[in-house]
Amino acid sequence: MGQSSSTLSPEEAAAIKTEVENIIASHGVVVFSKTRCPYCTKAKNHLKKFSANAYIIELDIVENGAAIQAYLRERDGQRTVPNIFIGTSHVGGCSDLLQIEDGDLTTMLAKLKDVTQY
Question: Could you give a GO molecular-function term held by this entry (predicted)?
C-alpha cells in the first residue's frame, strides 16, 4: 500500500512534502480522508451541504497514502483523518469542522471563490 515515512529516503520524503504542500496551495478545500472512515464521510457530506468542491485524497487508496499521513502528522500534529484544510489553513478533523458556525464556514468558502478555484 505504499511506504511509511520511516522507510522513505530523504529524497522521497522531500517529494511527499512538496506534493502535499502543492495540493494544499492549489485547492481551496482539501480533505485527506480514508474510504471506510465514518468521520471522513460525515465531514465530506458536511462540506457538500455548503457546495464546497473539496479536493479529496483517499489515503487508503493512493500509493503513498501512509507517507502522506505521516507527513501531515509531522506538519500539523494531527494523527487522524479526516485532515481538513480550507484555504491554506489547517482546520483539523471532523469535529473541528462541525464546530465552525455555518455562517462562518459560508464566509470562509465564499472568500475562496474570490481567490482561488476550488
Answer: glutathione disulfide oxidoreductase activity
Q: Is 63 left (phi over 0), alpha (psi -120 to 50) or beta?
A: alpha
pTM attached to this predicted model: 0.89
| Structure confidence by residue, pLDDT tens digits, 50-104 | 999 899 999 999 999 999 999 999 999 999 999 999 999 999 999 999 999 999 9
Task: Give CA–CA dist 113/95, Å, rounded.
Answer: 24
3-state helix, strand and coil shares in percent for the chain, rounded to the nearest 5: 55, 15, 30
CA distance 105 to 112: 11
Distance CA 53, CA 116 (A): 12
DSSP structure class, residue 90? E
Sheet with strand 55-58: strands edge to edge? 55-58, 29-33, 83-86, 89-92
What pLDDT, in 10s, does the model give residues 90-103? 999 999 999 999 99
Look-up of cell digits 489515503: 59
